[in-house]
Amino acid sequence: MFTPDGKIKAPYAKLFSQFSKMGIDELSVRNSLMQSQMLKQGITFTLYDTNDTDANSERTIPFDLIPRIITSNEWQLLEEGLKQRVRALNMFIKDVYHEQNIFKDNLIPRKMIITNPYFQPDMVGLNIPNNNYIPLSGIDLIRSETGEFYVLEDNLRNPSGLSYVYKNRDLMMQRFPELFFEYQVRDIHQGLNDLLGSLRSLAPNNKQDPLVVLLTPGVHNSAYYDHVFLAQEMGIELVEGRDLTVIDQKVYLKSVEGLRQVDVIYRRIDDDFLDPLAFRPDSLLGVPGLMNAYRAGTVALTNAPGTGIADDKAVYAYVPKMIRYYLNEEPIIQNVPTYILTNQEEKEFVLDNLSTMVVKERTLSGGYGMLIGPTASETEIMEFAQKIKQHPERFIAQPTIKLSCSPTLTNHKNIAPRHIDLRAFVFMGEDIQLVPGGLTRVALREGSLVVNSSQGGGTKDTWVL
């Protein structure tokens, strides 16, 4: 909100003036009303593996009422860069499962992909609708102290959090209508139509009125609210595996009207649980025979199985090369520098500098399996050093980048700086569209760099002017 010399940044001037007039007590009252409204509406997320007594319990995601503002020029740059990135990632996934030219030209090690746990041999040579593997992507961005945006992570399997973008906006418009008169904030509600359009465009044989369903693991999934909201808002059926059946290589929805053929499945179930006949035989979440129907081309799955090869944290390091290779363009948004620890020189450098590094396990997400060197204890650093020596192929390392900060209302009734990132949602259909803004995530603990909801992070409304 402020420049380094303490002056208010121009886009925040009206906001700062309005909030200053209200004072901390009025802001705290409005914040309490927002949190209670979230609880009433069931806007929740389940936290796992925490150290407190409420571990594995469902709770509201903390919402911070001070919005993050992005100017139109900044957003234009992000929009162009993210469209470029998603195009290249989609081309990479298609290439891996078909021609494999990127391996033949030695741009990325074949072994890194073939041994990846998300690589699906069943997808090799399989043609999918419109060659569209990733109709929905969630790309995580950070901003450095110098103001430049960097891509931190690509989420291409089951990116979550889209519902919170819309609920955050609704809450702000209810509690601060005066601010929306002062600012020209871009509307976000076309985004769900864009997502629905992306899903419908995948229907086999270009069916005009396809039946689209959202396949959820069920009420115990941490992001179940996300599933319910998206199904309701897009007007599609929310189903579990037991609601679907496969007959003659076609998928049907069991309904009170009888069996209805399903054309597109927006699945929020991981690959391994999709079909007990193709993957994990003990899965009770999926649909027996689903992959046979998918291979027969009678149903579309999104995002496609096997897309996890492209959100692997080691593969991330090669995305700038992919952009040059597939698009013959220079990357518009840069990566954070990344060390591949199977490279002996890079591994030794990282081991010598672990106290300044962030180390991540390649295939984990949600803030799990990480070492943040500057805040880690000597014991934690030694443990991670041992893990890296034993299995260097499982980890990547990055220099610690101090994420940009935003003013945040704390539990102590004061406003303090907290680190933030931005998850941008990209929809690929006939065109590529973005929700103007996305989800700003905030690390609520002082000094913390971990913003993930699964680690107790909160969210903010994101205003694109």
From TrEMBL:
| PANTHER family assigned to the protein according to its UniProt record, in alphabetical order | BLR5612 PROTEIN, SLL1039 PROTEIN
Top-rank taxon = Bacteria
UniProt protein name: Circularly permuted type 2 ATP-grasp protein
Ranges where the Circularly permuted ATP-grasp type domain occurs: 67-443
Record-linked InterPro entries:
ATP-dep_Glu-Cys_Ligase-2, CP_ATPgrasp_2, UCP005522
| Gene3D superfamilies linked to this entry | 3.30.1490.270, 3.40.50.11290
